[in-house]
Amino acid sequence: MDIRGRRQSSNIEDRRGMRPVRTGVGLSIGGVLFLVVLSMLGVDPRPYLGMATKQAEPQMEQTAEPYQESAQEATLRELTAVVLADTEETWNAILPQVGVQYAEPTLVLYSGAVQSGCGFAQAQMGPFYCPVDQKVYIDLSFYQDLSQRFGAPGDFAQAYVIAHEVGHHVQNLVGLADKVRAAQERMGQAEANALSVRMELQADCYAGVWANHAARSRQLLESGDIEEGLNAASAIGDDRMQKRSQGYVVPDAFTHGSSEQRVQWFRRGLEAGTLEACNTFE
After folding, report:
1. Which helix (H) or strand (E) holds 119?
2. Is 18 or 55 the better-scoring residue by pLDDT?
3. For the whole prediction, is pTM greater than 0.85?
4. Is 118 helix (H, G, I), strand (E, B) or coil?
5. 123 neighbors 113 (Cβ within 8 angstroms)
6. What is the reported pLDDT for 235?
7. Do residues 267 and 230 make contact, with C-beta atoms less than 8 angstroms apart?
8. Which of 50, 106, 129, 218 is most exposed, with minimal Cβ within 10 Å?
9. For residue 254, is pLDDT > 90?
């Protein structure tokens, strides 16, 4: 990818260097009211204290020393900011055509663990999008895993990951994410997983739509980039991930789609460059 001199997004929130701190057990609001009512009724509330408490999620605090990034991390941070800026260009142009104003998401850089609007998360989970706070979360060390563990090296492979998570943000803005979550609540596990697969494949397709516009309108891509993106889509398919981790494949447990499916939908978005090409729910 040719990122030299490209605009970097200002929607970057750097939380690297923060660490989780357990605050212990705390009382929920409902638990406090429960104990108060017991006391008013003349009942000793102490035996019920355990019922009214909950384990608090870890909170994040900044370490005493500022985070010192390596030269490699600085390069990855720059790439991430350029790719995020380019997704902004793409979706600010496309979504108004379907009557939706694009609200640019914030991308949070973190190291090790992070507190998001969707709860506490660790880097082992990989990059993710939280619809509650409309933020994308990435630990830059994932790019090393993508290359060494999953066999998908290259800057465009990394860009594909960012564009995929931004694709979930697009789904959130157009109202599809809420509809799918509501439908999943009425389904069994297998059916809910099938809907998750369709959501993930559409995000792959949206990543392809971005790549189409990045190449055609802004000449961001270079020779070999598309192959890197297709390789990344294949490398993190559910079938290959399951085979790697447990030695066999369970299609009913898929949540993101097979390697073949992910490549297919990324390629479809890449070739068409339109939202209409990404209807994975038909």
Report:
1. strand 119-122
2. 18
3. no
4. coil
5. yes
6. 84
7. yes
8. 50
9. no
